[in-house]
């Protein structure tokens, strides 16, 4: 829950992913879905685009993660 005076947010998102071997990408955006109506006490935000790009950094035990978000919390 959010601290007053800010109200909590919720999002309903569709996600997809792509695995090219060297890179992995997870992308998402907001959708309307009849099974997930707005929740009382929360503001429904809109994610126009969110994405994770995961790349090996050359080490066997490490990676670089980039996160991009274009979101309207309303």
From TrEMBL:
- Supply one GO CC term from the record: cytoplasm
Q: What Gene3D superfamilies has UniProt attached to this entry?
A: 3.30.530.20
Q: Where is the START domain?
A: 1-74
One GO MF term, please? lipid binding
Please identify the protein, giving its name as recorded: START domain-containing protein
């Amino acid at each position: 829950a959010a601290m007053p005076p800010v109200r909590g947010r919720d999002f309903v998102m569709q996600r997809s992913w792509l695995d090219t071997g060297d890179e992995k990408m997870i992308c998402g955006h907001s959708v309307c879905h009849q099974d997930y109506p707005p929740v009382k006490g929360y503001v429904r935000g809109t994610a126009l685009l969110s994405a994770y790009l995961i790349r090996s950094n050359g080490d066997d035990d490490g990676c670089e993660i980039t996160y991009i978000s274009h979101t309207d919390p309303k």
